[in-house]
């Protein structure tokens, strides 16, 4: 189903309203005695002592106070509910009382959503606040968990209808009253128990939505291996239930974000990894393993992700699900939008379904249906989009986890990629219609739009799927794989082994593969589109790893280089994120490829264009340094080749001529070292350190390393800060040793992307860190004694 509006969960809006409620009802309009009761109950709720429940008052007392304070009879109803919910009760009276309480709270919850939608002045929600204050939440938790209690060997049972009412009331209270969701999240046994209520289709949606809300605020991640009979529970879900369950899984399999930027530094990440090694697998990793152990789990996700709209559930079952959601406020905004779409299409197509507006008097709030029961097509599509969003997210997280190779194998086997290829035009990248669903307060181009979110999630999945994995060739069809082979044959180079090993029965079918389709929409994307970043990242992941001439030429033949240069130079792109992704992609596309540099020189054919290009590069080296690295590496290779074609490019290409100049390299080197420090290194900017090392490694090959270090020293002095740069670089290299000498993946990536053996990387760093001040290649030889500061401790405790 649709993603829940954040404000209806546990956001700031709920907190403001709860605060307003406390203020309004704590003072109670100048009636201190009822106010004192509420304050005492609130104090008891916080401490667990004193007044905590309605049962601690007499019914006469509560009735008398209710006349003054207008509590809507809620405390008295709770008193009756407590009396009728004892262990030996048949719960019939209990259910009748719940039916009385439920509308008092559901009206407030609906008002809450309406107020959020209209952004009106603050409103208080006294009924849900009073219900919680007099112990209603704790009482419903006890009632729901009665089946866990055995009497004389027999477990108590309560009806699905009663469970449904309890869940609905609990959720409405969570929506309107601050702190309730967090208190429920602290009851770990209750959270685990809630999973067992999803075995019933009647209570599934209410349970799933409440669990999602609770897990969203839970401090510690729940462990799925503690859920009783998890495998059986998930295996018995139908496809719609499984898709909704993915919303819960999204919270349980993703590593928890601390929300602190400092924790994203490499220093902090390294410290956290050391700590994690001593603690064992994280809860998210345990949960991923638990899911992958369920027979057929990934296969069912792949079927959901690739299911066509025509294959989705029939109208009757979808109507039943909409009926459930019609009274379930988590998706009120989305359902409201769906209703609007249906009504719009009804006017044009005489669609047969008419939805009553919220608050209509129709019994049970059910939609009317005429003799025909066909849903509007846009409603079916949106229904499917909501499902696929959650499923693609779960698959994407699993692809990035510890069991990546296992997930890759299963995704390939179950033909996820060909299935997505078949959905590309009609669903994933379909054209917007005038009635396309968007959330209130947003537009079709907003990242919150379901259409937009699906596209981004799809691109993230492609990026994870292609990144450093030979299965990336499944993004092509048979004809395109043959084209790769032909490119290698024409260039007289060995065919890529991964292409030869690709199972042709698992690749895309049709006239175009998924990668080609992506390139087509990428070139048509408007300049201001938020998709440009994700599209470039997805295509770049196809090129990552060991450089493949055939892969590059496949993309060059489709005009990718010209498109990138147009975006960087002619459109003068301003977005830093998009620029970084385009520079990274351009670097991978051009690296070691003479044909790419020829194409570059043909497009950047004037000094004016070249100056615009250089301005974009120099505006932020954090964004462009990967391109600088790739061009520097390519220049070094070309200079060592004896070939007329290469010689021609070297003599004509403005970019190669620019990079070949020592002053240019020194300018880049100085700035790359100066913009990073050990304490601020992140996964994003550590590339600056590695690019500076590439420049110095290539200088070392030419026996020019002392020259480069001496020039850095002179540049320091010219800035009137002797020692500041080389001390910083010394610290950075010490961190580099700690970081990379213990991480196989990172070292392999460095080696594959640079075509420089990792042993040469290590040797160069060791030479630079040599403590011998007599060594002409040691950093300390160029730092004067008074300015020496190389032993600073940068580790975190």
UniProtKB/TrEMBL annotation:
GO molecular function, one term: phosphatase binding
Region (Disordered): 350-372
Gene Ontology process terms (BP): ubiquitin-dependent protein catabolic process
Signal peptide span: none
GO cellular component, one term: Cul4A-RING E3 ubiquitin ligase complex
Pfam families: DUF3689
Record keywords, A-Z: Receptor
Superkingdom per UniProt: Eukaryota
Protein name, entry field: Short transient receptor potential channel 4-associated protein isoform X1
Lineage: Eukaryota, Metazoa, Chordata, Craniata, Vertebrata
